[in-house]
Structures are given as structure tokens and as C-alpha cells.
Amino acid sequence: MKKSLMSTMLFAAAFFVACTSNEEIAESRGGSGQDAIEIDVPVSLSDVPITFGAVGGVTRSSITADEMECKDLGIYCLARKGIDGTADKNLQWNMSSASTTNNQLCRWLTNEPAEIVWTGTASRLRWKNEEEGADEHFYPSATSSYKYAYTFAAYHPMISDEHIEIATNSIYLNFTNLDGSQDVFTSVTEAPTDEATVGIEGYGAAYFRNGGTKTPFFNLKHRLSQLIFNLKLNDTYTGDELWVDSIYITSLPDSVRIPLITFTKEQTTPVTVTINEPNYLYVHCTKTKTYYLRDFNDESLRKNYENYKLTTSSQQIGDCIMIPPMQPGYMKYNGVRWTNATAKQNLMTLKIRVRLRDIENNYYVYAASVAPPENGWKQGKKYNINLTITPKGATNIAMAAEAQLIDWEDDTDTFESNYDIGE
Q: How far apart are CA 296 and CA 5, in angstroms?
């Protein structure tokens, strides 16, 4: 079965020969509108295209998959280091002076759409709609008046330019209208490991012409928190058969602001630039919404409730819910950092609702309040919410809940705590 999400991918460069003209530059250079400019300063293209290779990784849930597909990645190609006399002090990404060759070269590709497709033998990363004749993208020529080595930044799911902030030394992504079904991940490539031999700290035409052979690599990181729900009947339960109709969490924030990539300049002689891949984000609470657990096929859990008959053995219900990684110090309310500890704790407490149904289609809805771990819900972490259905009379059903923190990647970092569930 094909899966749509993944956590690592390879990024390769190959060599082709192509002819270009000034009219072709705007098309080949790319960019989807952020700080949109008309290229009125000639910038030569190299004959080294930016291409992609095979990919591998895991899905948004705990299931691994060899046949991965992902239709909406955004790619940036950004200057990371001046070469051949270009000073790092000139490096900036916001293109405030769009008519200069330097600024065009600093942010070479802007939010270009890419996708992962299954070829029948491997998953391959390529430019969006390549089969329909999408334009190729080339590195700038090594004969340009300003010369840079490049890094790449990628993210998923792709968002429109109006939700992206680009400053001189940073790019921020604003994800809004989250509903629990999206997996957000980002990555920044590192400098090639043979940079000392080649003498260039980044990718580009000059790197490959000087003998560079290393493949840029994206190690994509999950930026949200993942909740897995496991339910079972108490061993002593002898009542009617029960199915899980739906599970949802109320009053969760719907927006996060994620730094995709930044750089810092050290005022040395000459100035030096360091590329950073920030590991923090801000949760923005402009409004709250309800997140629903969906089935593995991304359908409504209620539609497939017959697959989730409860027994005395614990079973995972549905796929997972992705929530903003709410942590003290990184939460804002209407754009202002919260100082009210009680309010933050209330927002971080998961208000879970479980709706059960019996064979006669009678419904029972129960509420569970699950307090966060000591340091909040962390990005890239998986949390198991284990619920046990315990009989309380003929028709009243109570629940006991446990939460277990498991590292998303290797399931090693854990904590346990008990919670009382009210009817």
C-alpha cells in the first residue's frame, strides 16, 4: 500500500547539457511569488541542472513503507557561502533590492513545488509535474559577477507564499487551520563532506565542476507531536458489545510558526556565515478547534467503526492525531507570548472525547483530561494514550487512562502517569 509521508529523503545532482537565453532565465530560475520580482539584471545559467534522486523513510504513523508518495513539498535553494571573492557580508535572502545580481543569486529558488513518486522500483523526488513538462531548474553559472555555494531547505505540506516570512537571514513558515491529520516536517541540507578537498562549502555549478561528488541529503524531521490511541475492555467486563465510533480532542490551537532555516554572521575579518536549522517553533493560539482521529485510509473513523470492536486485548484505534507541540515558553496567544501559567496549562491539557456505540446504535460519550508531560508536548515525539473501558453498572461506562511517551523514531524515551476519566 502506498504511503504519503516520510522522514528521510535523498537529494541528488546530475549533469546535462542545455542551451539557455536571457528569456529562459525567469522560467528556469523558478520561484512562486514570494517577494516576486522581474529579473532585469542578466544572470547566466550553468548547464548543471538541479535534479532529485531516490527517497526512503517512514510514514506519519508507526507503519513503515517502501512505496512512498508525497505530492506537496516546497523547496528553497539558498546561498550559504561566498566563493571566488564574493564576500559573505553581501549574503541576504530577503531580496530587498531585487534589481541587483547579488540578491537574485542569494535566493535562487523560492518555494518551488516538488513531489515524491513511486516509479515501480523506487521512490523518487522530482520537480512537481515533471511528466507534464515542468521546467528544469539549473544552478547559476560560475561566471556570474557574484558567486555562491548553495544549501537547500525543504518542508511539507507546501503552503502559499502569503504564509511565509522571509527576512535577511531567516525563513519562517506559518501553518494555519491544522486539524490533526497533517504531518509537518522540514529539513536543511548540510555542506558536502568533501568540501575540504573540493574547496567549496556548498552545492552548485562550481562545486561539481571542481570534482564534487557528494549527494545532498535531507534528513526530514517531524515538527508536530503524534498521539496514538489504544483501547481495551477491562478483563471483568461482561456487558454489551461496544465499538469505537469516534475519538476527538477539543480546544486545541490551530496554528504553528516554524523557522525553516536561518543564518548568523560573525563580525570577523572577513565576515563568516553559519547556516542554522532551528529546532524550536511557536504555537499560536488565535482560535481553538476540534481535532478528530481518522482511520488509516484517511477516512472518517465513524465510517469504519465496525473495524474497531472493543475486546479485552488492547488495540490501536485509527491512525493518529498530530497536535501542535505545546511547550511552556513557546506559546503565544494572539501573537503575544503567554505569561499566564494556568491558561497555558489548561490549553496543554488534552480534552479527549471517546464516543462508543453498542449493537443497537446507542451512543455513549465520555470525557478524558490528560495532563501534559512535565515539559509539555514535544515535537517529533509519539505519545501512546492507553484507555481501558471499565464497567460501572449495566449501562454506565467509566474509563481509566494512561499516557506513555515514546520517541517517534526509536521508541526509547518514555514516561508513565495515571489519569482519572470522568463520565
A: 12
Q: What are the pLDDT digits (tens) for 47-102?
A: 776 655 555 443 444 333 456 677 889 999 999 999 988 889 889 998 765 557 78
- Least Cα distance to 244 among 386, 357, 320, 351 occurs for 357
- Preceding amide of 270 cis, omega within 30: yes
Three-class DSSP category at 72: strand
CA nearest to 314, candidates 371, 239, 389: 389
Which one, of 204, 159, 166, 202, lies nearest residue 182 by Cα?
Answer: 159
Confidence of residue 18 (pLDDT cuts 50, 70, 90): very low
Between CA 126 and CA 119 the distance in angstroms is 11
- Close Cβ partners of 127 (under 8 Å, ≥ 6 residues apart): 52, 112, 113, 114, 115, 134, 135, 136, 137
pTM of the model: 0.80
Using a CB cutoff of 8 Å and minimum separation of 24, what contacts does 296-299 make?
Answer: 296/61, 296/63, 298/181
* 292, 326, 342 from 349: Cα distances, Å: 16, 10, 11
| φ/ψ of residue 194, rounded to 5 | -100, 25
pLDDT in tens, 202-218: 988 888 888 988 877 77
